[in-house]
Amino acid sequence: MDVEGTTAVVTGGASGIGRATALELARRGADVVVADIHDERLAETAAAIEALGRRALAVRCDVTRDVDVDALASAAFDAFGAVDVLMNNAGIAVLGPPHRVEMAEWERILQVNVLGLVRGVRAFVPAMVERGHGYVVNTASVAGVWAYSWDAAPYITSKFAAYGLSEALARSLRPLGVGVSVLCPGLVHTNLGETARFSGVPDEFSGQWSYFPPEMVDVAVAADEVGPMVCDAIADERFAIFTNADDAARFTWWRDDIDRSLTDSIAAAPTPPRIV
C-alpha cells in the first residue's frame, strides 16, 4: 500500500512512537489526524505535520470513551472524506506484583491497551471494508509475544491481547482488502514512563519493582527510528513489525520449547522481591 495521497489516523499520536509515525506518514505524502489526550503536544505535532506540507487535524481523544472515539471518527470523515490508514497506538503501563495489583488498575490498562484498539477498529474499519481498501496498524509490544519480565503482568497481559486481536483481524480483514500489521516494539525511548503506574508495591519496596533484561536495554532504539519501520511495513503489507534486531528470532526460539525458554529466563533474571 502506498501511503502517498492517503489519510491516516494515529491515536496516541502526540508523542513517542505515535508522533514519529505520524510525521513519517506525512513525509511520505499522507494527511494525518492526530489523536491524543495531551493538548499541547497535539498542537505541536499537528504544526510539525503541516510544516511538512501535509494537512493535519488534531483531536483530543480518550480511547477509553466510546463517545470520544466516535467523535474522532466523525471529525476525520468530515474533514477528509475517508480514512485509509488507522494506527491504534495509545497505550499505558502498569507495574506491580500481579497478585496485588488493584482491580481498578487492571481495568484501566485493559480499557486503554485492548478496548482502545477495539473502539478504533469499530469506528474506522467498517468504512474500509465497504470500500475494500484500507490498513490497520495496532501497537502491541514484544511483551505481547514474550513475557519479558516479572514486573509488568498487567502490561504483558494487555499486549498479548493486542497481538492476538491483530492476528485475528489479519485473518478476517485481509481477504476483504484491508491490510493489518502489528507493531511489537522492544525497549524504545519514549515518554511511556510518564503515565506508568505502580500498584500493589509497598513503600518499603519502592524502586525495587522494575526489571528489564540486559539484552533489551542494550538494543534500545529511539522513537524516531520506529516511524519508518511502520511505514515500510505498510508499504510491504508485512504483518509483524519488530523494532529491535533480535526480537523476531527470540519470538521463534521462545515458542520452539516454551518450558525450557521460560525456565531459562526465570533462572537468568533476579528474583523479584517477596511481597505478600
- Total number of helices: 10
**What is the terminal-to-terminal distance?**
51 Å
- What proportion of the residues is helical, as a percent range? 40-55%
Shape designation: globular
Work out the strand percent. Answer: 15-25%
Order of helices and strands: EHEHEHEEHEHEEHEHEHEHH
Question: Over the alpha carbons, how many angstroms does the gyration radius reach?
Answer: 19 Å
Catalogue the unreliable spans: none
What summary fits the major beta sheet?
A: 7 strands, parallel
Q: Which secondary-structure class do the elements indicate?
A: alpha/beta
- Total strand count, please? 11
Q: Average pLDDT, to the nearest integer?
A: 93
Q: Give the spatial strand order of the biggest sheet.
A: 3-2-1-4-6-7-11
Structure, explained:
By secondary structure, the protein is α/β, with parallel strands linked by helices. The chain contains ten helices and eleven strands. The strands form three sheets. It has a seven-stranded parallel beta sheet with strand order 3-2-1-4-6-7-11, with helices on both faces. It has a two-stranded parallel sheet with strand order 5-9. Helix 1 packs across helix 8 and helix 4 runs parallel beside helix 5 (153-173). The relative contact order is 0.14.
